[in-house]
Fold each of these.
Amino acid sequence: MTETNAKFLKNAWYAAIWAHDLPNATPVAKTFLNEPVVLFRIDDGTAVALEDKCCHRAAPLSVGECDGDGIRCGYHGLKFDAKGVCVEIPGQTQIPPGATVRAYPIVERWNMVWIWMGDAAKADDSTIPDYFWLKDDGWKAATGYIPMQGNYQLLVDNLLDFTHVTYLHKNTLSADPEEAKVPVKVERGDRSVAVSRWILGHDAPPLFRQGRGL
Ligand code: FES
């Protein structure tokens, strides 16, 4: 599948960035579903996501500057607010009504910033997965990124199929070949598929033991 004909699930929340990786006053360029997006925070700390392409001469807004309640293009200085509306054009008083860039629904939750790349009218933040443990004092979370070059569907296939764990990760995520016999539970929701399995009566895998200092 090439980039140009890739099919993406648009009407869904995507984890865009760890909250602590979106600093104040510094725009961050990202690509989601093949679309260039600039992430930044306005003065009150609210996260914003806009199309990373100025409506004037298509310069990436991510190389501009955060400016109070918006972002200023680094080419000719147009300023856009958090809704993607141009609110200032240096040197002129008239702002064309079409001077806008696309704004994406964005929500900060569970120490992550979530973005909705599809129809904004359908963005319901109650459907963001519950990852409370990422921001709960009773849990310790490890954050980071694992860049991969390949079709995302291959990764989904990998993560939904636990049968590989015993063999591919035998020195890290698996402690006992017998684990391969533990059944996997598959749950289908309206918009989701989840797999899980409880492995009881076995030693903890090496990576988990390491995490506990054992
Ligand atoms: S390209 Fe952005 S202001 Fe001209």
Note: The chain has three helices and twelve strands.
Amino acid sequence: MHDIYDILIVGAGPAGCAAAYDLARAGKRVLLLDKRTFPRPKPCACGLTRKTLKALRYSVDPIIERVCHEIVLQQSASVTAEPHARRPRRTEVRVKTRKPICAMAVRERFDDFCLKQTLASGRLGGSVEFRKIESILALRELPAGRELPEGREVPEGRAVRDSIELDILTAEGPQTLRVPVLIGADGSNGQTRRLAARLYNHGTQLSPSAQVLGARPGFSIRSPSAQDQDDGFALEATVPYAELPATLPAGAAPHDLVFDFAPLHGGYGWLFPKGDHINIGVGAFAPADGASGVALKSVTRALLLGYAKHKLGVATLAHITGQYLGMGGHAYVPRGRVLLVGDAAGLVEPLTGEGIHSAIVSGQAAAAAILSCADGEPAETLAAAYARELRPLQETLAFSQRAARAFYAKPERGFKAMRFPFMRSLILKTYADGLPRTRLITALAKLTT
Ligand SMILES: Cc1cc2nc3c(=O)[nH]c(=O)nc-3n(C[C@H](O)[C@H](O)[C@H](O)COP(=O)(O)OP(=O)(O)OC[C@H]3O[C@@H](n4cnc5c(N)ncnc54)[C@H](O)[C@@H]3O)c2cc1C
């Protein structure tokens, strides 16, 4: 039994690191657990928008491989290997600015860099310790005043108070950790969301539609069975510039940052230019409305291979990887002493599939909530503080979900709207800096009429 940490964080991706960084700088002792040693691969195109770079507490310039000043939005014809796919006329909109729109990094290096910054962030007695674990075995909450299990003693100088116990498996064997707060930052496939759902939902399974609507705040943590309906899914691969033909078959330049809405319903294909290669991918992000299961199923290796052939003229892809993206989190209501952040809380942006920004902002929100509560505050106070800190992000995501529904229902209509300079600048501003709400409402009205 270890009781020397103030906060336990499961997952050392952008969300976990953002939380750990702020907590350690404020003097808290943080234990950061991950099932991987770093650097580790993670499926992600790692486009870092202006708002993401702004949200980070430190510069990531050393690992930026390219900076893009232009986005190419397309609906390119004859993209796909899927026989039933739409084959619209080719449409293209180029949106340019003087200020960079998006910085390109390789995810493995980005995460490793952020973890190093985080491990060095301690101040005022605060610290971050990283530990690799094999898995999480169990999660319990110990209410204040409850007797400790037989054989366990209250550590000297510490009062018994509400706390979380986490059983983990390490290379040395099983261990139990006890802390006042646990942050679940273990991504879309992580265990903390499932364990927290069991702890606080008393086994109740929540239908995806109820979660999306946030209809029953008492049962607000998504159930594991809802993953397929609620989450997005994306596949990616990399192609070295050296392997590309002299002229790309679909007309893109090798360094174009391309979003192409033709290959599938409810999502897009992309080309993200890096230092020595292109990251190519396909992903479905459309919000759950009964049809998203179809969109997820269309994200296949065959689709990605067809798309790579069409866009880059390459017939094979060496490493195809993919992952779910946690979505639907605009309706997440924090409960108890387990605060979910990033993909674990379903906070990926539904219009673009961008998740690093939300991961960082929610990690920082969880840290702010913890720091705003005195030691030993009841769990409800902590959860309410986190709900308050998270609200601006959730409101933005709820808007974005409406925008995604409107856009993906008929991308052609969205493209028509982009002929107007106002719409182009809004799209660009939204992607790069976040959604300016009043302008978005106007734009949504245009898009849906
Ligand atoms: C193909 C693809 C492309 C994408 N492209 C972009 C993009 O260009 N820009 C963008 O902003 N977003 C992109 N995203 C989304 C983005 O990757 C995620 O939203 C983001 O990584 C979420 O960060 P996180 O910290 O919440 O989770 P993660 O980054 O997934 O980190 C979770 C961490 O938890 C660890 N973990 C998992 N389970 C356990 C466990 N049981 N115990 C201990 N540790 C555990 C993992 O090893 C990992 O280190 C993309 C996603 C995909 C799948």
Note: Residues 203-228 have pLDDT under 50 and may be disordered.
